[in-house]
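Input record, target 12 of the design panel.
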């Protein structure tokens, strides 16, 4: 079996699932998900894949994980074994993402393996993209206000624009690492779209719409979407995916909102600088067809 260790918000969980699913298909084995780290996890909405999507989520048992990790199974030992300095001591099936860019060595892992990492590149699953898209179809129907917005999107040249602030703006450590997309980035992206799309209508998604209204000036029709909160926040990703084109933030959430749009004609604009202060090599994070500004 392939076991994917899951942690983080919905976008991170999707990357971890997609990489694990692609590898399990390549190896011809089952995919199971280790969600044990969510037991004491207080950020975001906890484990969401099973609730949100139509993907098969077989949860790994303690025995499943122990079978692969053996004496390195305990949480304390696992944390130690994540250190690069002890990589040679890891069991053969204990697979830790060695760096942020795409790692071609993932295809050489054993059939029984335990994956730890973020795996944030389409290259991990692009060969089985139709399967991943099917797994990430939304479970529940659109209703009420979201259904109305979806109908409006279908009638216009809809552009999703995501401004992520929240912890990126309010937590000094998070701000130092991730940074915030500048107003110049959004203004440049809006201009890029306006030069290529007739009569664009912008649907603006943000966890701080007040700030956006005060600071991001729009000369085009726009609608602010900020009613999907907490357990319903995934609906923002769904609505993003229904737009024709996308301006994303440095966020895996809007990355997936854009990727789930299957149109070959879509324009996706993404920030070239994904992190503020980081040694992470992001060359494989954004698909080649996306525009980097």
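The sequence produced for target 12 reads:
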């Amino acid at each position: 079996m392939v076991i994917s260790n899951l942690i983080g918000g919905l976008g991170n969980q999707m990357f971890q699932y997609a990489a694990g699913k692609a590898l399990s298909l390549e190896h011809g084995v089952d995919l199971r998900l280790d969600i044990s780290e969510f037991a004491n996890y207080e950020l975001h909405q906890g484990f969401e894949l099973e609730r949100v999507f139509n993907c098969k989520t077989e949860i790994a048992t303690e025995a499943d994980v122990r079978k692969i990790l053996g004496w390195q199974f305990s949480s304390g030992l696992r944390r130690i074994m994540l250190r690069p300095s002890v990589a040679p001591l890891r069991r053969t099936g204990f697979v830790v993402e060695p760096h942020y860019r795409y790692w071609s060595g993932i295809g050489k892992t054993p059939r029984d393996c335990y994956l730890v990492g973020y795996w944030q590149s389409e290259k991990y699953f692009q060969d089985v993209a139709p399967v991943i898209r099917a797994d990430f179809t939304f479970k529940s129907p659109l209703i009420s206000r979201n259904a109305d917005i979806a109908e409006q999107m279908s009638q216009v040249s809809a552009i999703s624009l995501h401004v992520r602030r929240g912890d990126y703006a309010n937590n000094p450590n998070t701000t130092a690492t991730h940074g915030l997309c500048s107003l110049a980035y959004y203004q440049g992206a809006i201009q890029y779209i306006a030069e290529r799309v007739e009569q664009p209508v912008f649907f603006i998604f943000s966890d701080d719409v007040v700030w956006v209204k005060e600071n991001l000036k729009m000369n085009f029709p726009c609608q602010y979407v900020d009613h999907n909160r907490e357990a319903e926040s995934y609906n923002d990703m769904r609505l993003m995916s229904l737009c024709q084109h996308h301006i994303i933030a440095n966020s895996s959430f809007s990355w997936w909102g854009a990727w789930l749009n299957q149109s070959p004609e879509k324009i996706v604009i993404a920030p070239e600088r994904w992190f503020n202060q980081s040694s992470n090599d992001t060359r494989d994070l954004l698909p080649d067809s996306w525009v980097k500004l």
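The longest helix spans residues 10-27.
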